[in-house]
Amino acid sequence: MEPPLIDPFARTIEYLRVSVTDRCDFRCVYCMSENMTFLPKKDLLTLEELDRLCSTFIRLGIRKLRITGGEPLVRRDIMTFFNGMGRHLEAGTLEELTLTTNGSQLERFADDLYAAGVRRVNVSLDTLDEAKFADITRWGRLPQVLRGIDAAQKAGLRVKINTVALKGFNEPELFDLTDWCAERDMDITFIEVMPMGDLGNEDRFGQYWSLEDVRAQLAERTAITDLPEKTGGPARYVQLENTGQKVGFITPLSHNFCESCNRVRITCTGEIYTCLGQEGHSDLRAPLRSSEGDGALEDAIRAAIALKPKGHDFDYSRQRADGQVSRHMSHTGG
Ligand code: SAM
Ligand code: SF4
């Protein structure tokens, strides 16, 4: 029995998010620039390496695995990887296998994902207006995503919608979005926009819509009850009395919940980031490739977790985007 992964602040690490590609079929304005240069294929972990890496983490105590990107479902043969992880679910060593997706490929993959053991997916969707959707994602088409959501629900997957709260963009749609989710029996989580990526000609502070304000607007319409549920992540949940639905708030800016953070992230090149909001990271690809045994990899994982910082430094309180990190979200996987 391996000792669990515990960081210097006594947080047990049980949640791993893995980016399987930096590529995407969308170019959301807050996530990527229009002309992205993607990594050469040889730098990416192969599907076999991803399997070995995740299996090692599971042996060290990871219980929840979330696959992300870029857009995870555009990685070639990605179902081979999902099917491989299914064996850990069957063995009971992994409790949950899930993914975050833009939904564009769900129509194609929903049944296969269910067959691999996935039961829940997070679909990112910021607006129900077709023209606005095309604007914010640059390359995305709303009907394709809506068909993907239909297919996921039909396959038996529980869908949660993730919505980035953007000032002056989806403010007028707050009730439309929550009502639409309630009608379809989907929970919704709002996310504060984070100062990541190339901020050269973009105004992240101008886009920032505090979730305190979102919550206050929801409370004007119906009673809200705080739910005690904690996921070890940054989200806090409430229940709306009128629809009974659950609404989550991920508030890295207006509240920081780093003290209960139980997660680490792996990029598609095998870097481990123990905090989304800090630049510090270590390489797991070299130890992974250096030998067929997993000893060097395990040592590198433990060494990285021993350096997990206390928290991030994102801060808009001085009326500008402080504590920003230069990576795009698609690099670390949101
Ligand atoms: N392509 C998939 C998707 O869009 O769901 C998975 C990767 S995407 C990077 C994961 C999440 O990060 C999405 O919900 C997206 O809205 C969010 N995201 C990207 N850039 C962000 C930013 N600057 N601030 C807050 N959330 C961001
Ligand atoms: Fe692609 Fe997701 Fe980033 Fe949008 S948020 S560009 S869908 S990786």
Describe this protein's structure:
With 334 residues, the protein is α/β, with parallel strands linked by helices. The protein has a single domain, classed as TIM Barrel, CATH 3.20.20.70. Helix content is 32%, strand content 17%. It has eleven helices and twelve strands. A twelve-stranded mixed beta sheet has the order 7-8-9-6-5-4-3-2-1-10-11-12. Strand 5, helix 6 and strand 6 form a beta-alpha-beta unit. Helix 2 packs parallel to helix 3 and helix 3 runs parallel beside helix 5. Bound molecules: S-adenosylmethionine and iron/sulfur cluster. S-adenosylmethionine binds at residues 24, 30-31, 68-69, 71, 100-102, 124, 162, 164, 191, 193-194, 196, 329-330, 333-334.
Set out the fold topology.
Elements: E1 15-19, H1 47-59, E2 64-68, H2 78-91, E3 96-101, H3 106-116, E4 120-124, H4 130-137, H5 142-155, E5 158-165, H6 174-183, E6 187-192, H7 204-207, H8 211-221, E7 224-226, E8 235-240, E9 246-250, E10 263-266, E11 271-273, E12 282-283, H9 285-290, H10 295-305, H11 329-332
Parallel strand pairs: 1-2, 1-10, 2-3, 3-4, 4-5, 5-6, 6-9
Antiparallel strand pairs: 7-8, 8-9, 10-11, 11-12
Helix pairs in contact: 1-2, 2-3, 3-5
The site of S-adenosylmethionine (SAM) has 20 residues, from strand 3, strand 5 and helix 11.
